């Protein structure tokens, strides 16, 4: 008899929790795929397309579907590391096929050479180039992501990619180099590059 | 808390509260306090950097070649957290260009270079005798235009601090602590110009109507305390009743804003907060003296008191010097002889929080409270850092109650989120932990590195977020444009078709089967044809409907036809000869009809039967 009661009690509990879980999965269903948003948040949003996808979000979707995490040169090692932490996978070295990690750059138009063709304006993924047909164009440096998509379309090659220089406003202290690590032979022995 | 007071049975609120941690480094203050504040002579050239304050870089409003007067605005504040800059003397602007400035990075920034004419002609000034004659907005504008920044060393724009909500602030904390070793600029000011500080307090009081004003001074400055006491007797009783001069034991870093607030009131500034959250404003004595100058005498911040100290300087003391003066000439004036056998070490600020300048040819700025040129004996170069032995001494001395050792590990391993959750940003970078570290680890540099990296990461994240929004906005715009283009195309196509249909209704036009109007016309045509053919069928059925007539109807028709024949034959007989022909045809037609009907009647009987 007691066996029957316990089975009934367990069945009742199973039904109850099943109903609860079922209700929760309907009531608290997340909008969209949160993992894509998290991946998109880590990607540098340069929208450069070097990964082979048209923008950062499509690549985030591809990563969520199992694409390798090492196709983003602007993000570099730190982005790969963050993605590896998020997705709990092994960090891979940056895939050289998609480009190499460069310091942050900004596009500069040599304005007296610009012929006002608007081709770079159409290429810029973040609307960071200002100008009109047959008028000089210029880059809004604070909005430029350094994706260099504007360089190729320029018919007169008047766009330069220049590395962003550190100013007093953006400078910050570097980590102290412990003196015992400064000794070259010690550094070699511990396998660390000084 | 204060043992002496407890022993005396004095159980009232203590005069000061004990903040955690702190250290007692050698003070080294007497050597620069031997004489009065010296006036530094005018120079030939001044270099005024555009970023002498925390916040946005100010914008030059003069041009090269323009002549300027002493105290004239040469760069305006850019935005709310910013401050203007003034010409330190009269002369000509010779250049506006990037020059090295005193900064730990050693980088250059925009500067206005003024060649002095030697007359030091002031711009017209309008001194104010009484604050009560002027509106608060005018007073605040005057403070904003004077380019005041916190002279304790952080250089935060004073006008921004004084813009805090009047209804929530009831206490003024006056910081006369000057806890950092070697520096005596505030000490000398309090000793020699206490009434100037009290006039500055008067200005702040006019703005805020403080309930209480607490002046905090360390007990290693007895002469400054007595000078302030004397000056307090000479001010209006209404103001004097609210002022309390509190003297407390010397300990580094009691002059930190948060530490001083706790020391004087027993209230803790919340993590990430400001003293205004507790209804308090904290100002340095030097700032208040400059505030008095700016408001009463219309004298903007163009000079400051700077301590020259360190045993490598034959002359040590305090100087009042115009901002923008070349540090090299100041050191030469003090008789500095560089030691050719040693690397030069000139520190801006004190030994605890200051930083070494990488060259001497730099302008003196609003934040330069001290130039320290120590010998190797008095301030030895720190020995090489050794690994942490986890002794925990740093944690004992941290005035902010943090875990310096943990923060160092997090900084070393770049674990920024952990460092932040251990309140890295509550670190005031006082250097007490590094001072006691037996392994000589440059702990503060780790914290500065971690803070800088976190801030850069946050800035990058903000920027990438903005790039994402701009990208999405662009995509949305392109899609919208494409949709609009498609809609326009469709509209045009429709209009063209309508035109074609219109032409199709005219007879000459041939209607294309694709055209709906033409199709409609065709359909209506077809309908008309169909109805016509249906009508035709209907009439066709009427004539062969005769066989469907019954025998009775046929015989009735035969009877009426025979009667009409009889009448017609009678008429024919009576007719005139000219009518006979027509009558004959009528008769013959009637006979034919009768014959037809007789035939039909003859066919019928079998079917009827």
Automatic annotation (TrEMBL), chain A:
Q: Where is the 4Fe-4S ferredoxin-type domain?
A: 105-134, 135-164
What's the chief localization of this chain? membrane
Q: Which residues bind [4Fe-4S] cluster 2?
A: 114, 117, 120, 154
Entry keyword set = 4Fe-4S, Cell inner membrane, Cell membrane, Electron transport, Iron, Iron-sulfur, Membrane, Metal-binding, Repeat, Translocase, Transport
Record: residues binding [4Fe-4S] cluster 1:
48, 51, 56, 72
Question: Which note does the record give on the cofactor?
Answer: Binds 3 [4Fe-4S] clusters.
Q: Which cofactor does it need?
A: [4Fe-4S] cluster
Q: Where does [4Fe-4S] cluster 3 bind?
A: 124, 144, 147, 150
SUPFAM superfamilies linked: 4Fe-4S ferredoxins (SSF54862)
Q: What class of enzyme is it?
A: translocase
Record GO biological process: electron transport chain
Spell out the subunit comment.
The complex is composed of six subunits: RnfA, RnfB, RnfC, RnfD, RnfE and RnfG.
Instruction: Specify the protein name.
Output: Ion-translocating oxidoreductase complex subunit B
Q: List the top taxonomic levels of the source.
A: Bacteria, Pseudomonadati, Pseudomonadota, Gammaproteobacteria, Oceanospirillales
Which gene codes for it?
rsxB
From TrEMBL, chain B:
Determine the domain of life of the protein's source: Bacteria
Q: Which NCBIfam families match?
A: PRK05035.1, rnfC
- Biased-composition ranges, Low complexity, are 501-538
Task: Identify this protein by name.
Answer: Ion-translocating oxidoreductase complex subunit C
Q: Which cofactors are reported in the record for this sequence? A: [4Fe-4S] cluster
Q: Does the keyword Metal-binding apply?
A: yes
For this record, the Gene Ontology CC terms, alphabetical, are: plasma membrane
């Amino acid at each position: 008899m007691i066996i029957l009661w316990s089975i009934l009690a367990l069945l009742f509990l199973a039904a109850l929790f099943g109903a609860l879980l079922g209700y929760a999965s309907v009531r608290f269903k997340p909008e969209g795929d949160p993992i894509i948003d998290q991946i998109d948040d880590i990607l540098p949003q340069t929208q450069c397309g070097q990964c082979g996808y048209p923008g950062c979000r499509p690549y985030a979707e591809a990563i969520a579907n199992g694409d390798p995490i090492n196709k983003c040169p602007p993000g570099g090692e730190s982005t790969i590391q963050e993605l590896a932490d998020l997705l709990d996978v092994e960090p891979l070295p940056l895939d050289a096929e998609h480009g190499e990690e460069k310091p942050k750059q900004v596009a500069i138009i040599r304005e007296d050479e610009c012929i006002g063709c608007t081709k770079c304006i159409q290429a810029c993924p973040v609307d960071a180039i200002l100008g009109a047909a047959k008028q000089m164009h210029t880059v809004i440096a604070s909005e430029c992501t350094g994706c260099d998509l504007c360089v190729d379309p320029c018919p007169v090659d008047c766009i330069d990619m220049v590395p962003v220089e550190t100013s007093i406003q953006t400078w910050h202290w570097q980590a102290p180099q412990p003196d015992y690590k400064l000794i070259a032979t010690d550094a070699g022995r511990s396998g660390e590059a000084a | 808390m204060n043992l002496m007071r407890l022993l005396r049975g004095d159980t009232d609120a203590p005069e000061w509260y004990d903040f955690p941690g702190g250290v007692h480094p050698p003070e080294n203050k007497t050597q620069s306090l031997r004489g009065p504040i010296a006036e530094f002579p005018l120079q030939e050239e001044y270099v005024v950097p555009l970023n002498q304050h925390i916040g946005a870089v100010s914008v030059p409003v003069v041009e090269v070649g323009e002549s300027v007067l002493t105290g004239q605005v040469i760069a305006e504040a850019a935005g709310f957290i910013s401050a203007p800059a003034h010409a330190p003397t009269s002369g000509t602007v010779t250049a506006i260009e990037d020059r090295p400035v005193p900064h730990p990075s050693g980088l250059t920034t925009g500067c206005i270079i003024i060649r002095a004419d030697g007359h030091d002609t002031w711009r017209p000034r309008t001194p104010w005798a009484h604050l009560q004659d002027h509106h608060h907005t005018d007073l605040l504008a005057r403070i904003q235009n004077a380019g005041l920044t916190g002279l304790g060393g952080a250089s935060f724009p004073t006008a921004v601090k004084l813009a805090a909500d009047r209804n929530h602030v009831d206490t003024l904390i006056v910081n006369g602590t000057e806890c950092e070793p070697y520096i005596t600029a505030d000490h000398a000011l309090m000793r020699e110009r206490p009434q100037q500080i009290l006039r500055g307090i008067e200005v702040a009081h006019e703005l805020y109507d403080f309930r209480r004003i607490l002046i905090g001074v360390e007990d290693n400055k007895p002469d400054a305390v007595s000078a302030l006491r004397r000056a307090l007797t000479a001010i209006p009783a209404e103001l004097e009743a609210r002022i309390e001069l509190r003297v407390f034991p010397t300990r580094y870093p009691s002059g930190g804003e948060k530490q001083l607030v706790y020391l004087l009131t027993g209230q803790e500034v919340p993590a990430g907060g400001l003293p205004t959250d507790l209804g308090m404003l904290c100002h340095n004595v030097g700032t208040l003296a400059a505030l008095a100058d700016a408001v009463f005498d219309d004298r903007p911040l163009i000079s400051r008191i700077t301590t020259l100290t360190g045993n490598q300087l034959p002359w040590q003391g305090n100087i009042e010097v115009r901002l923008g003066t070349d540090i090299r000439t100041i050191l030469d004036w003090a008789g500095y002889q560089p030691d050719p056998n040693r690397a030069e070490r000139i520190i801006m600020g004190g030994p605890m929080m200051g930083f070494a300048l990488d060259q001497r040819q730099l302008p003196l700025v609003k934040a330069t409270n001290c130039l320290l040129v120590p010998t190797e004996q008095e301030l030895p170069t720190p020995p090489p850092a050794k690994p942490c032995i986890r002794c925990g001494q740093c944690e004992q001395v941290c005035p902010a109650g943090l875990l310096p050792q943990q923060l160092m590990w997090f900084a070393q391993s770049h674990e920024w989120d952990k460092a932040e959750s251990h309140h890295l940003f509550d670190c005031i970078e006082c250097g007490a932990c590094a001072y006691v570290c037996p392994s000589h680890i440059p702990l503060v540099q780790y914290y500065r590195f971690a803070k800088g990296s976190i801030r850069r990461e946050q800035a990058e994240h903000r920027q990438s977020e903005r790039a994402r929004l701009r990208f999405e906005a662009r995509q949305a715009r392109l899609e919208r444009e494409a949709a609009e283009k498609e809609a326009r195309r469709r509209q045009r196509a429709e209009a063209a078709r309508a035109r074609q249909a219109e032409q199709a209704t005219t007879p000459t036009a041939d209607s294309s089967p694709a055209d709906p109007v033409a199709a409609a016309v065709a359909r209506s045509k077809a309908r008309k044809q169909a109805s016509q053919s249906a009508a035709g069928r209907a009439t066709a059925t009427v004539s062969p409907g005769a066989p469907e007539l019954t025998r009775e109807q046929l015989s009735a028709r035969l009877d009426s036809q025979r009667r009409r024949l009889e009448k017609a034959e009678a008429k024919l007989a009576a007719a005139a000869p000219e009518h006979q022909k027509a009558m004959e045809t009528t008769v013959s037609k009637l006979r034919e009809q009768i014959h037809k009907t007789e035939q039909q009647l003859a066919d019928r009987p079998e079917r009827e039967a």
